[in-house]
Structure formats: C-alpha cells, structure tokens
Amino acid sequence: MKALWAWKRLTAITIAVFVMTGAASCGQNEFTYVRDREGTTYFKVPATFAQVESYGIDLFLSGDNPESESARLAKQRVWSTAFDQATEPTPEHLISSTEPFVYATVHKLTEDQVGAISMNRLRDFFLPVTKDLRSALEQQAAMAGREMRFTKFELLADDLLSLENGARGVHVRFNYEFQGKVQTYDLTSLLDEKGATVSALVISCHSLCFRARAGEFDKIKDSFKLIRMPG
C-alpha cells in the first residue's frame, strides 16, 4: 500500500460506479443506496448529497501519476465513489469544506499488501493517524525543509471493530488543521474475512459542522457494511 501522504491536487476524472436509489414515501428519494461493483460493500447517503467524480481522490491518496502503470493497475483493484452536499460540489471538498463530504473505496490488496496489513495500516488508510507515521512524516518534512500541510492533529475516537465471519476493522475520528481551518475526518476501515480486501468510508466536514451534525453522520457511518455473498 503506497504512502497516503502525497498531497497532490485533486483532479476530476470519470469513474463508473454502481448506485441504486431507494424510493421513500410520496415517491421522493430519501436516500441513495450504494454498493461497490462486486456487491460486497454497502452504505447509504441522504439524497441531498450530489455524486462527484472520485478517481482524482484515488490518485491523491495513492500518489500515482495518472499516466503511470501503477495507476492503470490500481484501476483494476480499486473501486470508489464520492458524494458532496455543497451547493457547488467538487472532489476538493473532501479535504476542507463547511459542508459534509462522503468518500468510499474498496481496495483489493496485492500479495505484498496482504502481508503488511494491520490495524494501524487501517487507521492510516486515509490520512496519518498513528503516532509513528505522523512522527516519521514530520521528520521527513523537517529534513526536506518543507512545512506540513496538515497540522495540529487531534484524535477524537479510536475503536476496534469485530465483524461477522472473522472480518474486522477500525473506526477513527480525528481533526487536522488545513489552511487555517479545523477539519474533522471520520474513517471506518474494514478488512474482509480473508484479509484480502479493505473497504473504507470517510466522512468529512469542518469541525463545527461535524459537532452540530454528528448524529446525521453517525447514521451514514453505521450504514456502512460488508455483505457476505452466497457461496
């Protein structure tokens, strides 16, 4: 799993996703119901969220050049989707926005990644959370004479998750200051029972927004499930 701290500008490149919309009373859509392309990961978001292109976010997290062989191969192993509730939706709002943003991804791990996966890797799946990784990145930045773009880390929650059939995961909620604004990120990372696939859900919003609407965001988080397929 490549380092997730390559702070690249998000780009917008189309990726196909599989979305099913559920009908509420009076014929209106209350939620958008989402599954990954193989139907093993599920969640729902309010229909007031607009879907935005997510491939640029994938590149931001992996650090891959979109023209590289690594990026081409990753497309075969990675599924993702994203939703923004802002008036003018954009993938950049995952990092900093006064309106909530939801990003979900499913990674089929390579053999090397399977051997290296751990609960700490799941915690660090989106942004650096563990002390060891944060310290290492701070040292690298200092040696290179660079300033960290994400600063003043605050851990708000850290829970181990035990799921059915041996699947497991973590839930972490944390703050980072980015460009003078405190942003709250809520990450759920799930490892399937075979230890071969990671499914992750990120919910983000400025800290005041997150505190005011934490109940709404918990409902999105709690809807994020692994689905055991027949056979």
Any overview of this molecule?
There is one protein chain. With 231 residues, this protein is α+β, with helices and mostly antiparallel strands. Helices cover 25% and strands 35% of the residues. The chain contains 7 helices and 11 strands. The chain has helices at 55-62, 69-77, 111-116, 119-123, 131-144, 207-212, 214-222; strands at residues 18-22, 31-35, 41-46, 50-52, 78-84, 101-108, 150-162, 168-178, 181-191, 197-206, 225-226. The strands form 2 sheets. Strands 4-5-6-10-9-8-7 form a 7-stranded antiparallel beta sheet. It has a 4-stranded antiparallel beta sheet with strand order 1-2-3-11. The chain is globular. The chain starts with 17 loop residues before the first strand and ends in a 5-residue tail after the last strand.
Question: Quick gist of this model?
Answer:
This protein has a 7-stranded antiparallel sheet with strand order 4-5-6-10-9-8-7. A 4-stranded antiparallel sheet has the order 1-2-3-11.
How big a fraction of the residues is strand? 35-45%
Structural class: alpha+beta
Low-confidence stretches: 1-27
The rounded distance between the terminal residues' Cα atoms is 29 Å
Q: Roughly what is the average pLDDT, rounded to an integer?
A: 86
N-to-C SSE string, H for helix and E for strand: EEEEHHEEHHHEEEEHHE
Major beta-sheet overview? 7 strands, antiparallel
Alpha plus pi helix count: 7
Helix content range of the residues, please?
10-25%
Lateral strand order in the biggest sheet: 4-5-6-10-9-8-7
Write down the overall geometry.
globular
- Rg on CA atoms, Å: 17 Å
Question: What's the total number of strands?
Answer: 11
